[in-house]
Amino acid sequence: MTEQNLQILLASRPVGRPSPDNFEFVHTPIPSPGEGQVLLKIRYLSLDPYMRGRMSAAKSYAASVEIGQVMEGGTVAEVLESRHPDYAAGDRVLSYSGWQAHALSDGTDLRKLDPQQAPVTTALGVLGMPGFTAYAGLLTLGQPKPGETVVVAAASGPVGAAVGQIARIKAARAVGIAGGPDKCALVRDAFGFDVALDHRSPTFAEELQAACPDGIDVYFENVGGKVWDAVFPLLNTFARIPVCGLVAQYNSTGPFDGPDRLPILMRDVLTKSLTIRGFIQREFHAQRPAFYREMAQWIAEGRVKYQEDIVDGLESAPEAFIGMLEGRNFGKLIVQVS
Amino acid sequence: MTEQNLQILLASRPVGRPSPDNFEFVHTPIPSPGEGQVLLKIRYLSLDPYMRGRMSAAKSYAASVEIGQVMEGGTVAEVLESRHPDYAAGDRVLSYSGWQAHALSDGTDLRKLDPQQAPVTTALGVLGMPGFTAYAGLLTLGQPKPGETVVVAAASGPVGAAVGQIARIKAARAVGIAGGPDKCALVRDAFGFDVALDHRSPTFAEELQAACPDGIDVYFENVGGKVWDAVFPLLNTFARIPVCGLVAQYNSTGPFDGPDRLPILMRDVLTKSLTIRGFIQREFHAQRPAFYREMAQWIAEGRVKYQEDIVDGLESAPEAFIGMLEGRNFGKLIVQVS
Q1: Same domain for B275 and B133
Q2: At the top level of its lineage, which domain of life is listed (chains A, B) (predicted)?
Q3: What is the pLDDT of residues B145-154, one digit of tens each?
Q4: pLDDT tens-digit profile of B26-46?
Q5: Would B291 be classed as within a structural domain?
């Protein structure tokens, strides 16, 4: 039997929480590269919260995945066959090949990886899009100053972990929020946050207040939901709130029950001169070279640590993705495809 | 009978809409200036929406007025008697003397005015705090680019009028929102906005959409309320929202009925990379010299017009202030004290 390509397609749009039947597995012939193309064998697929948005038809910063299309996603691949002058068989590359085992590329989405320099999986996490989201969002928009307090949720995940560690490098206090004692231990002991708090604690809001005796200067928003409610009253005058994700509400369908919190938000925006700023990392692409250089150095110096949660087999991707939206991953979630 | 000083004190804190009995009129002896002080006779008192905040005990960017204290406010005054080396009897000054007919000053709150250069009342409006709020907020935070669409409410008021006219000077389109046909005519015909819309129209939201065929790039927020609901869906990617006031909700006591609009706001902050930024003008005080220079020139060139609504007698201040919070003024509201 000839080897075939496995692809995972978007079969239907989820209403609320995605379910396995939103995905369809298909086997197709492995394509042949045309002139100027390479054939890739996908080694690792990144699973990230933003993919929930791509499954919806709602207008967003990026186009939706169409029904019947391969699910999108960042990948680490090996060049199997090359008809492109810049790539040779055996090259390891970062690509944007999506949820499949093989893919063609014309090279425009590729970046060569050097496995000697760093494990290739880091190109999907701490040295990739999540790490860069943390770096650009925190430094450009959050602008933490020495002694200020930076709070971030999902602090055991790849964005939150980098936010807190970069905050510490900039001499700010880092308060991380995570779900459960194991993740909190990771955030405190491995990533070196000043404080780690479990948002499941019944006294979470009080614990956060106690952990931020001088208030909050930067809240790096990547979850939304009830963490926001605990953070909001603690924001200082001139606090900055970069917003890169709202994973706690991605599965919500709305309308949302009252009371209406918008007037209270705007009142504090006004009286505390708050800055709320949504962003996606590619807006700051000019900073990528600086990011690669600085982050690689911080990792080499042991000042930035990372944690990966690698699940086995492309077939596991839907379940792993659904679980991630509920916080069941432990660190950067990656699928080992082959 | 010797002339006495009339002072208007905060008698009690309003719950919701202020009423005349929140104010108390007292007659006190006219004070004598000590060494280094001047005695001022107040000519004009500025009435501004921010004063509603000072009447409340709630924490804000400035301390509340205490019960029994003179209500705060910007004033134009004449020096009656001076024991300060920099001031002489007859000088016209901008001061922060509050709701009273006479006041002492040690000079720290004073700025000399030249009645030959501009009518002294403009120091309370287009060449004063409201004009500077528009200038600094629009140029520093709003950053309108040629061809972009700038929307502002309370466009017949001193802040809104300046926002729209400065936007036009910067080659942006200015869409002004005001209450009623007379104010809309002022905004369109005198201030030269591209479009003026009446927020009382039953089809206001549709009219705003038609007036902004390319969406909204800058919404200068000074009112809140239902104008926000019409503006919000029209905001473009990377839209900027400087927030300097929320007059439509100052009299609200909350909690606010649902649905909860906060998750929808945050969703669009994220998917449209919006910037929401509260501010008060004094944060930008370094720009004041540039403001005085540029704004005076724009007025001299006829590129910025202004409208004043001058009411007679300090006794009228409470009613005029209460009316302003409901939009009953026509242009910058000023009390002619004497």
Answers
A1: yes
A2: Bacteria
A3: 999 999 999 9
A4: 999 999 999 999 999 999 999
A5: no
